[in-house]
Amino acid sequence: MFTLKEYQKRTLAALETYLASARVIGPKEAFERFVKTSPTDTRPQSYAHRWGLTDVPYVCLRLPTGGGKTLLASHCVEIAGRTFMERDFPLVLWLVPTNMIRQQTVEALKKRSHPYREALDSIYGQDRVEVFDIGDIVNIRPKDFSDKVCVIIATMQTLRVAESNKEVRKVYGHNENFEPHFAGLPNVAPGLDRDEHGQVLYSFVNILHQLRPLVIVDEAHKAVSGLTGEMMQRINPACVIELTATPVESNVLFRVYASELKAEEMVKLPFMLTEHDNWEQAINGAVQTRRKLAELAPGDRENYIRPIVLIQAEKINQPHTVDAVRKHLMENEGVAESEIAVATGEQRELDGINLFDKTCPVNFVITIEALKEGWDCSFAYVFCSVANIRSATDVEQLLGRVMRMPYAKRRAIPELNNAYAHVISSSFAEAAQGMHARLMNMGFHEDEAAANLQQVQLVLPEVDLSAMPLFKTTGATPSEPPPMTITLPKAPNLETLHEDVREYVSVTPNADGTVQVACTGMVPTELETALIAANPKKEDDIRSTVALHRARVRAAQPPTASQQGKRFDVPRLMVEVWGSLELPEQETILLATEWTPLKHTVRMEPGEFDYDETARTFRFDLDGEQMRYELENAQVQFSLLASASEWNNLELVRWLDRQCRRPDVRQADMLEFCRRCVASLLERSAVALPTLCRAKYALAAALKDKLSRLREQGLKDGYQLLLFAPQAKVETSFSNALAFPASGYAESIQAYTGVYRFKNHFYPLVRDLKSKGEEFECALALDANPQVEWWVRNVDRQQGSFWLPLSNARFYPDFVAKLSDGRTLAVEYKGQHLVSGDDSKEKENIGALWEAKGNGKALFLMAVKVDDQGRDVQRQIQGKITG
Question: Which residues belong to any copy of the Helicase ATP-binding domain (predicted)?
Fold first, then answer.
């Protein structure tokens, strides 16, 4: 079965956390709580009830092109069914934007060996999943809805239709074949479609309305019209999950950045961009680039790679058509006809061809726009457009095809990790602006889009590009980029900006009443905000201009230690378990102390799961809060709940075991844990077994919460025993050191954009640091200290970050520095009001242990603004270094 990438796991975990909370406190409040504690977007995330569906979670998972949205959609089914819909076999309506994508999705979901289908079968079993194309819905039996997960794939256009025109759609029309379904449904809901006599129509939409499906919306940015809202109201969904790279009016719950895909080796980045004056030069550049890549590819001994050029021609009424491009390749570039394949709506020369086959001769694919739907070949390395990059259409979809990494694994040859683009433009600045806009439309953040565009040196026509390095960029040495200039309708308000920022900004009035703003050096966030406030209608254009300028400023800086290929190794705290040194992960602590929930008294105490028979409501603890859970309304119970009310104790316990299962609890112990909890509840006269069965999902949530509390207590006990007990065997080990990643570190986290330029940061970008405040002052002190060779802003919960164990979490010190004498200094900064808290004391204790076990090579400092000796941060750091 396909193994999910870490960003995909985090996306699904976010959805699960949100939906579980939405079930008990409502969609809007659950959303606001989640994004407050776990924001993933650099812009504010807010929730708006869509189409009047106030009780329906309506959220968007935002993933860039190439992020595996459809695979995630398959995994969303089980999560939504279990955590919010509370159905063993949810009904799914899967909406896609086009018929071609519909056909491809149906084919993939019906194929048992495909990862999309495997995701469903692994949870429900092969015989419990049925996939239906919208044209086959008459084949669905009533029993299918109760005994199987039914996935129905349709285009948005099939269901998105105005009230006055709905009879032309078969899904809305009366169909006698659906009569058996209505025999088992209440048929009383006010939103059902009826005939002129008031009788409920036997229509597919009326079935959906009563069964309340999970609706998955692929490419959700294409589903924003009023007709979409009317469609959703008729369907009456239980939950709506959108997936797209570019949401419009969506409640974005979780955002994944393109840099995260790069870190997971899913995509080729950066784009090596070359601008050309005309289409012949662009094609020549693409041919030469492919030739050079083809020479390098055999050096990748792990996998076969044949670089392919993807050329976007113009439509038939334009001068640079498919035929013109093909002719030019053959007559002027010496490309054999067998190397060229055309893939358009009329010419489908790729049909039946396996581009991954070593015997396949195709090296050039010419298209117009047909490849945007479903075509996928990770051998595509070079994109070439014969139209100006700013005016060409469907570029985003084609760039997405060029981005995919062969075999989803970083290649040993650096040039094979990049994507290449040859475009027509009068200047690199124009080409970069056009490409930047395209990457933004693919889900990139402004700054990461700019950072992933690199200019390739444009050589003279008579020079063979295949002899030139593919990484060579214009200019031998970095030089300060020219000022950023931008025209605004009025002068921005600079009064609130610090004088250090205003010093680098000039505002010049123009004759037409507008002003020209020139900015030298880095443009901080507060200046960007002021520019946008002066012309909010051009916010996206301003952000793009600023991002590209920032990228140019950063590219002009001297290479940092990481860019010079230096290593930064940090000794890690290790604990001896059964004769070997191990990282003190939570799982290791529980395993070493042989924890099991049965070590504790196991029973459901009053307040943990109480039933109010009059209100037919359960009250229980969830994450430290009292939650109310109302049994579903009679209509949903009647139509969807299976025979759970007829279960005996053992059947309920077995079901709870499957819901609560954890890798760190043996199944025998989990079964006994569930049995004891159920038994303690049944001892109370107020609750009967059938009632518990009807509320089995709420009961599972309460049991998982209790299990988490018991596990947390076990972790605290084990943490003290393994790390701080007299017999504990702990070591700060350089032989088991953490090596900060050579590149790609914390790329999804917003970069520092202040005026001050740090000189000794290990990476070219400082992440998660504001341009003012106490942590900024701490960073300044580290950067200025002559005994600090280099330092890293150590970002929380990022792959490759340094951490120390706490009893219930990981602790990521704010800064980690390498000293010139080889020692390592970790600094955690705390505001004065937080120093005395239990959290700070636990962090200080584990930091002191890491230092004590480091044989003088590890130093830990809990820094404050002014310590009890009256020293500021700079002197605290110096005092720790000198002892």
Answer: 61-265
Percentage of the chain beyond pLDDT 70 is: 89
Residues 6+ apart with CB under 8 A from 625: none
For residue range 177-219, list pLDDT tens digits in order.
999 999 888 888 888 999 888 999 999 999 999 999 999 999 8
* Contact of 367 with 313, CB cutoff 8 Å: yes
List Cβ neighbours of 883 (8 Å cut-off, separation of 6 or more): none
Q: For residues 351 and 345, what is the distance between their CA atoms, to the nearest angstrom?
A: 12
Whole-number pLDDT of residue 560: 95
Structure letter (DSSP) for residue 125: -
- 512, 452: one domain: no
pLDDT tens sequence across 384-425: 988 766 665 567 777 888 898 999 898 999 999 999 999 888
Q: Specify whether the CB–CB gap between 381 and 309 falls below 8 A.
A: yes
Pairing of strands 453-455, 858-863: unpaired
Same domain for 228 and 308: no
Q: Which of 351, 339, 331, 278 is nearest to 308 (CA)?
A: 339
Instruction: Point out the least confidently predicted range of 358-372, 497-511, 617-631.
Output: 617-631
How far is CA 682 from its chain centroid?
A: 43
Same domain, 439 and 493: no
- Domain boundary among the residues 527, 552, 577 is at 552
Q: Both 157 and 18 in a single domain? A: yes
Contacts of 541 (CB under 8 A, 6+ apart): none
Tell me: do 696 and 774 sit in the same domain.
no
User: What band does 636 get if pLDDT is binned at 50, 70 and 90?
Assistant: very low
d(CA 118, CA 125) in angstroms, rounded, equals 9
Same-domain status, 536 and 457: no
| 38 shares its domain with 51 | yes
Q: What is the DSSP string of 572-584?
A: EEEEEETTEEE--
Q: How far apart are CA 561 and CA 820, in angstroms?
A: 13
SS3 content of the chain, % helix, strand, coil (to 5): 40, 20, 40
478 within some domain: no
Q: Can you tell me the distance from the alpha carbon of 841 to that of 638, in angstroms, rounded to the nearest whole number?
A: 55
Asked whether the beta carbons of 554 and 518 are under 8 A apart, the reply is no
* pLDDT computed for residue 70 by the predictor: 93
State the pTM of this model. 0.83
Q: What are phi and psi of 563, to 5 degrees?
A: -70, -20
Listing DSSP states for 803-837 in one string gives: -EE-SSSEE--SEEEEETTS-EEEEEE--GGGTTS
Average pLDDT, the chain: 88
Residues 6 or more apart in contact with residue 196 via CB below 8 angstroms: none
The total number of structural domains in the chain stands at 5
Does residue 556 contact residue 540 with C-beta atoms inside 8 Å?
A: no
Question: CATH number for the domain including 753?
Answer: 3.40.1350
One domain for residues 646 and 754: no
Query: CATH number of the domain that 441 lies in?
Result: 3.40.50.300
Task: Report helix angle 428-441 to 539-555, nearest 10.
Answer: 120
